[in-house]
Specification:
Rossmann fold, single chain, alpha/beta, about 270 residues, 5 strands
Amino acid sequence: MTALAQNITPVAPRILCVGTHHKTGTIWMQQVFKALSAALDVPKLSMWKRAVKRLPAEGRVLGTNWDSAFPTELMAREDVLFLHIIRDPRDVLLSGARYHETAPASKEDWLHEARDDFGGLTYQQKLLSISDPQDRLLFEMDHKHADTLRQMLSWNYTRPDCIEWRYEDLIADTECQMFRAALVRFGLTPDQVDKGVRAFWDNSLFGGMADPNSRKTVVAGHVASGAARQWPGKLPVAVARAYLDRFGDDLITLGYEKDRNWLDRLH
């Protein structure tokens, strides 16, 4: 469902916040909002509790939170427009497990912290100690992926001040209509909207980042494909069955399945 189809009551926000979850387009939005901040000459803040206290009393502000864990004080304000992105959890699982095998400490410090529950190994070391690729996916599913899925499930999808995006729709919107509609709702002038859409296009895999050789290091390190719906061809049957048993109902809750009969779509 696009932003235009949500029949949201118009508001007059001055703060635009984007919230993602691990492997749901975080690096994409990070680069887009960095470029948007520069294009519009608008400050960008990481929206944690301390940032809310530092918000300027007037003027537009951009905000980000890569766990969609926005402070309660911010969620209660009437001058904020939220953008929230989710992705098919099965693709999140595949992307996360692949990324966690190689991500450096400079990007994901939590991956490299020794943990008592892993016998002193870090998350990455524990993951790499598992020789079978399917068992690595099962480990990921039971740990970081489960946390990410809980975050997606805990979000309030009925907020009238939030535009809900699915990664699958956003990555297919090569005309940038969804992002344009969000900027229009934010109340930007036509010229500002055009600048914002340009920033979005320049930092999208179907736009300025289409050529792998032209991608910034931070993007290249996180993105292997970026394509939607990779799971039908890449999720092993045994892992898919385990996923169905544990998280099948959650896929229905998030709107990614209508029932539990999706194993036959694997190939």
